[in-house]
Amino acid sequence: MKDTNVKLQQLNVLLAELGSAVIGFSGGTDSAFLAAAAYRVLGERAVAVTCYSATLPESERMEAAITARQIGIRHVLLPQNELDSDDFVRNDADRCYHCKKGRFSALAAWAAAHGYHWVLEGANADDVGDYRPGLRALSELAVVRSPLLEVGLTKAEIRELSRQWGLPTWNKPSAACLSSRVAYGQPITAAKLAQIEKAEAILKKYCQGQIRVRHHGGLARIEVEPAEIARLTRPEVAREIAEQLNALGFTYVAVDLSGYRTGSMNQVLDLENKQKA
């Protein structure tokens, strides 16, 4: 098994061979590390581009801009509206495929128009084990590369290297676009995305760590880290949260006793596949 330093050396060689690159930059741990690595190797021939739309929380957009400044890399905001795509709005199991295909097609077009050879994205070696239709979309775009995945860097290694480099994102919690909170089959709308963003901002006042508000129509299903569940379910706190989320338009508010976990919305897909088997 390759050690981390060998992987990092391979990453540097890969980046140097690319010549110039646009980094799809969300400002999360992976894309921030990739942007920093690319800037170290390519300098001004690397640029971080953030596609932004109603699916990106405003706080994440602002943090991405701050992180890019700290890295030193040029940062560009590229508007994108997934809600114009009927395939995306339909919100079936391939939602992430349609999102990634549209977003990275836009990045590829921007790169070509501005003289950059490649578009890079931040998937890592741990991302191959989950249901990720977005990776399938990226494989269909010839100019898109996943350098961290190609050299085999894991999330833990990326966090440790980020810590060593002094990147503020080294211990940043994993994030996902707001549309990932909407239950499959329920159309994605700007109103629902705004509901989710406001609801999660409310919950941040009461607990720490990972927070997700899953939108099931009139039901808000709250996922927080297991250690935080008791804090939210104290009667007086639960009542306050319910009142505030009711005011946002949720009829029912529930705390998921299983706590936060990645891909929880995919459980329904697993169940459907078992029923078909």
From TrEMBL:
GO molecular function: sulfurtransferase activity
Residues annotated as domain NAD/GMP synthase: 19-77
InterPro entries: LarE, NAD/GMP_synthase, Ni-pincer_cofactor_biosynth, Rossmann-like_a/b/a_fold
Signal peptide range: none
CDD domains, A to Z: LarE-like
Superkingdom: Bacteria
Active site residues of this protein: C177
Example of a GO biological process term: purine nucleotide metabolic process
Protein name: ExsB family protein
